[in-house]
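debug: dumping io for the single-chain case to check the tokenizer round-trip. Nothing else runs in this session.
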Amino acid sequence: MKISEIKERKIIHRPTPDFDLYGKRIYHAYEYYLPYNPGFKGNETQRLFAKWIDMSLFTLIFYYLLHKTVLISVLLSIPWVIVLGSVTEFYFGTTLGKKIFRMKVIDDEGHYPNFRKSLKRNILCLANLYPLFTEQTSRSPYGKKTSTQMNFRMYLNNKICTTYIIKESRMEEIRHLLDLKPTENNRRLID
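debug: decoded output
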């Protein structure tokens, strides 16, 4: 079984315009089987900070030990982060920056990605750094306020390579779900 094949049972209660004899609103229950999401909320920001931590380490090495300029040190750190990040994700499932935030990289089978897949997702992370600007409108006592918000699309490399960024604490839960047979998995979700 793969992570992309796991379904999660969700029940959504929607209100109706009707009330019962005691004046309480009547709700309809709708049951859905949605794809299991092993990720966590806010992982884009943590992943961005983890990448900056990895890059800053190599930047400091090039700047202080090899006496390069700051710009050259930053540019030289990019390929080193890509290659060494791929190696550490292959062996340990994490990099130094991800380890600080207690994150792991796994593939669709629940294992650490192989070196080729890890290298591919680390090269594709350069496309993630291209920001997406959105306009956001909010109300204030003085009228509408419009601001521009910058978002990073930190999910593209995982989507293309079918890898997932998870918290270390969820690793056991995911492995348990993957060890179950499909019929047992569906029965477990229904209970």
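debug: round-trip ok. Helices lie at 43-65, 70-92, 96-100, 115-128, 156-161, 171-179, 182-190.
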